[in-house]
Amino acid sequence: MIHIRKVYKSFGEVNALSEVSLDIQDGELFVLIGPDGAGKTTLFRMLVTLLVPDYGSIEVNGLDVVENFRQLRTKMGYMPGTFSLYPDLTVEENLEFYASIFGTTIRKNYDLIRDIYKHIEPFKKRPAGKLSGGMKQKLALSCALIHRPEVLVLDEPTTGVDAASRKEFWIMLKKIQQEGMTIIASTAYMDEAVRGDRSGFLHQGKLLMADTPGKIREEYPYPMYSCRSENNYALLQAIRAESSTATALLFGKTIHYSPVKEDFPVEELMSGLEATGKYGRITCEKTKPELEDSFSYLSKGIERSETQSGMTE
Amino acid sequence: MSVDRQNSVAGSDPVVQVRNLTKRFGHFTAVNNLSFEIAKGEIFGLLGANGAGKTTLIKMLCGLSRPTAGMANVAGYNLITQPEMIKRRIGYMSQKFSLYEDLTVQENIRFFGGIYGLSKREAIDAGNIMIGRLGLEKMKNRLIGSLPLGWKQKIAFSVAILHHPGLIFLDEPTSGVDPVTRRQFWEMILETAGRGYTIIVTTHYMDEAEYCNRVAVMVEGNIAALDSPENLQRHYHVANMEDLFWKLTREINGSVTKSIQP
């Protein structure tokens, strides 16, 4: 179990985290979603005992991250956001090094890393610094796993990785999870929110929500329509100008449109807009909100009070 | 100075015309014999794994890297004989190359306006239009470094088109940005394309590919598929761009079996 209790952390005047509370179950795959600067790395560094909270407490499997940090370090695997293996050691030397500092050997835990390590084993004599991005990522994960940790913490393991490799990486994590390991991974990719058992959305240092993807979708309070036209940008502006509109967002070739009221006559509005001839044919159908709709809704409350809102018209 | 033509999208000459473009590094072929065209006002997406050749292709189209073989016309100039002219007619923005953090918004505008060859007067006028458009009056004297990432990106984008380039390159412009800001950024791209600008954009976000008019998926230096997102999904029997990308890079496994051109 991981208990995070009302954790605060600031750096000078910047409040990196404010009142973050979260419980993560044993064996859970938890995904922490948030943009750059949301506080993901700060939270992870506290989890792995590298940073001390200003206020609040964090317990990992019964051990306090401040009081019991030495004991905890042997029980946790950590893959930082930036590549932090030794570039001038070979693939094999890096892995051996991490195994030996945790008092174990590659052979002892080889079964745990086999599926991942086999992709880079052909290059085991190559310096780690000369590997491609995808191979570095696999080596870093192997090194984080080599002492068979109870909890695995991965800071943006898929950032900058192409979509197909990202998908493969999550399949690997699912397999590791089946070994009984608790895994917490952060990402800036919204589409990865559905990859875990639960997701948390961190925004400007606050944890806005932590739940299953289904529950997060239910959090969205308005009816949702998916609309298409021949000039979506113009249609978007027109829909937003209506006082009956709660939100309207572009989703690729569609507009996700929510009127405030459940019984709002959407067809009437759209046929009126269509009659102007500015948007070509407009079609709207009722749909379910995406995770991203919920996250956008949740983060908007905060955004409105900040200077960064008020985008161009 | 180039003039921004706000109309005439359809029927005009293509802004980019690529013929058999190839780049080799030693025995490695980074870009293999590509031919395609991009129309004025088009949003053209470039997808691909790391190492698929996207960056090499963009560097060539920007006039920064000389092709090993083939030719291209970019923004009205010949890539081989007039790369310096191309550099003046394009805008470029990426997550990595951005504004000066320790200059104010307005200082960055003046500075980059000068770099792009605008006179002092032109830079001030273009800057004022941009500040008005973005609603930045209150922020124009703030240091770029003090602004949220989302704003920096919107400003970086606007600065990249200060000189009304015929063509804008956006190299992973939205990585690390929150979803609300990412979406606002894409609204800005659509609005800009609607004013007749042509945009070439690379991204790792598959949902963003759906904003593009056409998308090229690069696999090992080749264009494995090139068409509108809808046509690609229909042709490959997939529900979304992520599945398409998986199919092209994993199942077809890098071998270019079929190349569909519009």
| Total number of helices of chain A | 10
Compute the average pLDDT of chain B.
Answer: 87
The N- to C-terminal Cα distance of chain B equals 34 Å
CATH H level of the domain at 16-99 and 167-251 in chain B: which superfamily? P-loop containing nucleotide triphosphate hydrolases
Q: What is the chain-wise order of helices and strands of chain A?
A: EEEHEEHEHHHEHEEEHEHEEHEH
Q: Can you count the helices of chain B?
A: 9
- Straight-line distance between termini of chain A: 47 Å
Oligomeric state of shown chains? heterodimer
- Measured on Cα atoms, how large is the radius of gyration of chain A? 23 Å
Highest CATH level, the class of the domain at 16-99 and 167-251 in chain B: Alpha Beta
Strand content of chain B: 15-25%
Helical fraction of chain B: 25-40%
Sequence-ordered SSE layout with sheet pairings:
The complex is a heterodimer of chains A (313) and B (262).
Chain A: E1 2-11, E2 14-24, E3 29-33, H1 40-47, E4 55-60, E5 63-64, H2 69-75, E6 76-79, H3 91-101, H4 110-117, H5 133-145, E7 151-154, H6 163-177, E8 182-187, E9 198-203, E10 206-211, H7 213-218, E11 225-228, H8 232-241, E12 245-251, E13 254-259, H9 266-275, E14 283-286, H10 291-303
Parallel strand pairs in A: 3-8, 3-9, 6-7, 7-8
Antiparallel strand pairs in A: 1-2, 1-4, 4-5, 9-10, 11-13, 11-14, 12-13
Helix pairs in contact in A: 3-5, 4-5
Chain B: E1 16-25, E2 28-38, E3 43-48, H1 54-61, E4 69-74, E5 77-78, H2 83-89, E6 90-94, H3 105-115, H4 120-134, H5 149-160, E7 167-171, H6 179-194, E8 198-202, H7 206-209, E9 214-219, E10 222-227, H8 229-235, H9 241-251
Parallel strand pairs in B: 3-8, 3-9, 6-7, 7-8
Antiparallel strand pairs in B: 1-2, 1-4, 4-5, 9-10
Helix pairs in contact in B: 3-4, 5-6
